[in-house]
Amino acid sequence: MTPQTILKSKFGYDTFRAGQEDIINTILERQNVLAIMPTGGGKSICYQVPALLEDGITLVISPLISLMKDQVDALNENDIPATFINSTLDYPEIATRLAQVERQEVKLLYVSPERLDSGYFERLAQLPVSLVAIDEAHCISQWGHDFRPSYLRLTEIIKQLPSHPTIVALTATATPKVAADIMQRLDLQREVKTGFARENLSFKVVKDQDSDRFLLDYLKMNTEQSGIIYASTRKEVERLTLMLDKQGVPVTMYHGGLSKQERQMNQDDFLFDRLPVMVATNAFGMGIDKSNVRFVIHDQIPGSLEAYYQEAGRAGRDGLPSEAILLFKLNDVQIQRFFIDQSEMDDATKAREYDKLQLMAQYANTPQCLQQYILNYFGEQAPACGQCSNCLDERESQDITVAAQQVLSCVKRMGERFGKTLIAQVLTGSRVERVKQFQFDRLSTYGLMKNDSQKKVSELIDFLTASNYLVADGGQYPVLKVSAAGIDVLRGQQQVFRKAAVQAKQSLPVNDELFEQLRQVRRELAESQGVPPFVIFSDRTLRELCTTMPTTLDEMLSVHGIGESKIEKYGEQFLSILIEHEDEV
Question: Which segments constitute the HRDC domain (predicted)?
Answer without folding.
Answer: 508-585
